[in-house]
Write a structure and sequence with these properties.
Elements (H helix, E strand, L loop, with lengths): L2 H25 L4 H23 L5 H9 L5 H25 L24 H25 L10 H16 L9 H13 L4 H4 L1 H23 L3
Helix pairs in contact: 1-2, 1-4, 2-6, 3-4, 3-5, 3-9, 4-7, 5-6, 5-9, 7-9
C-alpha cells in the first residue's frame, strides 16, 4: 500500500475519531459511559475499515511506539503523525460546524476536579495529570503492541481488543484529565477552543502532548524488553 494512501487513511480515521468521539463527549456533557464507549467504538469501526490500509494508528503515541520497535520506519512515523494532526483538525472543524459554529467546547482536555486542591490548580495538579496520562497511555499502547504482534496473535480480534482498551482507560481517566492518551486528538480541539476564547486546554497542552508520547515510548521499551528472546 502506498504511503499516500496510508496517510489519507490516517486523516480520515483521526477526523472520524475527533468528530464522533469528542462530539459524543460534548453533547452528553462528558458522560463517562457514553464518552468512553464512543472513543472505543470509533476505534473498533476504523480498525476494520482502514486497518488493512494504514494499520489504523490514529494516535501519535501509538505511531511513536511502533517506530521505536521498528515496526515502521521513522519516515513513515513522521508522515503518520502529520496526517493524524491534520485529521484531528479536520474532525474538530467539522464538529464545530455541526455545533452551529460554536467552537468554544470541542472536547479539549483539561485537568478535572479530582486533581484540584480546594477547587484550584496547584503544582500537584499538574504532576498528577501528567502521571495519569503517562500511565493510561502506557496501558493502551502496550495493549496495542501485544494484540497486533504477529508473532503471538493472528490479529483478527485486534480491533475489538484495542477499542475495549481505549474504553477502559477513558472510564478511569475522564475524572482526572478528560483522558487524552492522544496528542493529535487533544491539540486540534484546544486550538479551536482558544480561537473561541476558551484557552484552558491550550494552556495545559504541554501535558496532553508530552505525557502520551512518554507513555507510548515507555510502552514500546517495556514491550520489547518483555518479549525479547535471549
Amino acid at each position: 500500500m502506498s504511503l499516500l494512501k496510508k496517510s489519507i487513511a490516517e486523516i480520515i480515521g483521526t477526523a472520524t475519531l475527533v468528530l464522533v468521539a469528542c462530539g459524543v463527549a460534548v453533547v452528553t456533557k462528558a458522560d463517562a459511559v457514553a464518552t468512553s464507549l464512543a472513543f472505543g467504538l470509533v476505534i473498533v469501526a476504523m480498525a476494520y475499515c482502514i486497518g488493512n490500509i494504514s494499520g489504523c494508528h490514529l494516535n501519535p503515541a501509538v505511531t511513536l511506539a511502533l517506530a521505536i520497535n521498528k515496526k515502521i520506519t521513522w519516515k513513515e512515523c513522521l508522515i503518520y503523525i502529520v496526517s493524524q494532526v491534520v485529521g484531528a483538525f479536520v474532525g474538530a472543524a467539522l464538529l464545530g460546524l455541526c455545533l452551529r459554529g460554536d467552537f468554544s467546547n470541542l472536547g479539549g482536555n483539561t485537568i478535572q476536579t479530582k486533581l484540584l486542591n480546594n477547587n484550584t490548580l496547584d503544582s500537584w495538579s499538574y504532576v498528577c495529570a501528567f502521571v495519569v496520562e503517562v500511565l493510561l497511555t502506557f496501558i493502551f499502547v502496550i495493549t496495542v503492541l501485544g494484540v497486533t504482534d504477529s508473532k503471538y496473535h493472528d490479529g483478527k480480534l485486534a480491533g475489538i481488543v484495542i477499542g475495549l482498551a481505549l474504553t477502559l482507560v477513558h472510564l478511569l481517566g475522564l475524572s482526572f484529565t478528560g483522558t487524552s492518551v492522544n496528542p493529535a486528538r487533544s491539540l486540534a480541539p484546544a486550538v479551536f477552543q482558544a480561537i473561541a476564547n476558551n484557552t484552558t486546554s491550550l494552556q495545559q497542552i504541554w501535558i496532553w502532548l508530552l505525557a502520551p508520547l512518554c507513555g507510548g515510548a515507555l510502552a514500546a521499551v517495556c514491550y520489547r524488553f518483555l518479549t525479547i528472546k535471549k
